[in-house]
């Protein structure tokens, strides 16, 4: 059974809400959950993990991409992040870069304004090709 677009976003939001219950955020008390669907239809999740040295805190998207690779890799086609209330939030700049490098051909990110492609969220992104590499989603 193929999911409709609305069903996909609802499932991903539910998965992100569940993931945020496992966030480690004793400093900010701001749990975040992320969920993504791969091009193959698998769901991967992540939650933020803080550190007393704030600069090395991991956003939920970071742990989600780690999970993506832990369970076999692939490319992301849809991502959503939620805050402690389950409301949709937009990935920070660092995480947009991370999502860009692990995107499928048409990765969409759900925002408060609706679904946007990663290219709309991060125009003129820096990627592997800028380093002279032919790897990842930029590979032909």
UniProtKB/TrEMBL annotation:
Organism: Rothia santali
Positions of substrate binding: 48-54
UniProt KW Membrane keyword: no
Statement: the UniProt record of this protein carries the keyword Hydrolase: yes
Cited SUPFAM superfamilies: Cytidine deaminase-like
EC number: 3.5.4.5
InterPro entries the UniProt entry points to: CMP_dCMP_dom, Cyt/Deoxycyt_deaminase, Cyt_deam_tetra, Cytidine_deaminase-like
Reactions catalysed, as given in the entry: 2'-deoxycytidine + H2O + H(+) = 2'-deoxyuridine + NH4(+); cytidine + H2O + H(+) = uridine + NH4(+)
Active site: 61 (proton donor)
Protein name: Cytidine deaminase
One Gene Ontology term, aspect cellular component: cytosol
NCBIfam families recorded: cyt_deam_tetra, PRK05578.1
Gene Ontology molecular-function annotations: cytidine deaminase activity; zinc ion binding
Function: This enzyme scavenges exogenous and endogenous cytidine and 2'-deoxycytidine for UMP synthesis.
Cofactor needs: Zn(2+)
């Amino acid at each position: 059974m193929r999911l409709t677009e609305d069903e996909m976003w609802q499932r991903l939001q539910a998965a992100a809400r569940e993931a945020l219950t496992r966030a480690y955020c004793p400093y900010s008390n701001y749990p975040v959950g992320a969920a993504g669907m791969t091009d193959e239809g698998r769901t991967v999740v992540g939650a933020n993990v803080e550190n007393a040295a704030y600069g090395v805190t991991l956003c939920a998207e970071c742990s989600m991409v780690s999970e993506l690779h832990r369970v076999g890799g692939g490319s992301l086609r849809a991502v959503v992040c939620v805050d402690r209330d389950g409301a949709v939030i937009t990935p920070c700049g660092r995480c947009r870069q991370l999502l860009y490098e692990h995107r499928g051909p048409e990765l969409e990110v759900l925002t408060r304004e609706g679904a946007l492609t990663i290219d709309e969220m991060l125009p003129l992104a820096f990627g592997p090709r800028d380093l002279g590499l032919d790897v990842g989603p930029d590979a032909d």
